[in-house]
Here is the input.
Amino acid sequence: MISQKKRSVLISAVILLFLLSSFSVSQIQPFIKLSVKDYPNFSRVVIKSSFPLSFEIEKSPSLLMIDIRTDVLFRIRREAFESRLIKSFGWSKGRDYYILTIRTKSRNFSYDYFTLDNPPQLVIDFSQLSEERSETQASLKEKEASERKIPQALTPSTLPRTQTAPSSLKGTKTIIIDPGHGGLEPGARGRFGALEKNVVLAISFKLKAIIERNFPSRVVLTRDKDINVSLENRAALANNNKADLFISIHTNSSYRKEARGPETFFLSLKATDEEARMLAYLENNPAEFEKGITGENEDEIQMILWDMAQSAYLKQSSLLAESIQKELNSLLRTSNRGIKQAPFKVLAGVACPAVLVEVAFISNPKEERRLQTEWFQNNIAQAVYRGLVNYIQHYSQE
Amino acid sequence: MNGKRVALLVFLLTILIVIIIIFFRSGVIEKIKLPPEVPLPELEPLPPEPVKTRTIVLFFLSEGDTFLHPEEREIAASSSIVRQAKQAIEELIKGSKTGYISPFPPETKLRELFLTKGGVAYVDFSEDIVEKYLSGSSAEISTIFSVVNSLTYNFKSIKKVFILIEGQERETLGGHINLSKPFLPLYDLIAN
Here is the structure.
């Protein structure tokens, strides 16, 4: 009797222990808990986690990105909230990192943060900066308009809408956007698997939408899906559509692991002397070129001229490149970067000002992650758009 | 019994002695064979013969900036420029000895190199030079111009460089820089 009792006690103890342990396991399943609370002068976001956090914070207009480096699989708990300043949370997940994005209702905010232990907590206080204190439910469109108007450090023009009216387009009727690579040719690949062809297509769509919203110009993409398009056909498409501007969008890569930042290229004639000779020839015989691109005759000289169409537009291309690079530099604070020249196949045959923008290095894991985020793609598209408008307003010929 | 044992022992001993004699005899024979081979190394005057070398400059990338950086290298001063140029490219592919970055996939092989009378060097690489993960403009520019600049900088008779892949003309390495025309050097890309 006694031994039986003992045994049953033992068994039940074991069962109890087992239950307890499984219960506690479910208790310590990693989690991150988000809460928001408004205080008189600021709004506080508390990110409480069940495991130590290592993070980086990046700020951009109306957005704060928290880059959490961890391979822990965790749950996200968030409380419903109502806040003056905080609009929403967003998550994206990579192999060993998470990005928490906190959207604010105003672009004009500042933040401060501190951390606490036991449990690990990241506390971020958002406060509104002076002017638009009472802004509450600004519509998305208005916000985007105001985003364009915000003067960047290096932007000479604030681009109010009235200035970008059709009258100021100076005959820029057709703009070609060329998303690099596509189809079987994925372009450069990031270490975490991002493909250049997908990123540049997304940015190109965004750029097209921004231009079309503000300009009556026709915007043509050299590809609008994941397909192969030859480099000749991209240039030919521009020429057949009588393009006024040609912008090729790419993401860069390098053997240098640390390489980062945007670079804008235009065609180089220095690299092959055949082209240099052609340039000298065109400079001396400008009329020959005009005749050449009208396509009235069919002799060989004209074929060469067509092939070298870009050589007549180098000066304008360099100005366009400079204008776009300036905006990208001011967006990404990479002021030391200039424009570059190289003998790009896709640019050589384009008969209008043409540039190739390498928006960021997909070979750099940090930039790869950014390239995949909506806000970065949007910011890049906005910056390229601003560069385009500056160029048209300052240099474009009637 | 004893007699038989002794006989067996004697028999085994003689066999052993015979074997020993054969062993040493054959050793002697080998020794006799050896001497003609021994003096040979002494006769070889090859190591002291001075191999003429020349110093060339190869261009590599550096983590710190976007420029090409020079690195000196000794190569055999062969009478053939083509042979020297081949050696230069092979050294370039092998990579830097001072910690610079080589803008080539390590598997890259130089298949052939020939020089026209007009001063165009045709440099034929294996398919491996197309780095699939790094097919971006900067990577392409550094690969191409480390080859072009390294050749034109060191060999006066090489004025231009035409890059071939697997013996064929290629439009681009990875969709950017035009390979269908010979390159002139771009010394702007070199640091300082």
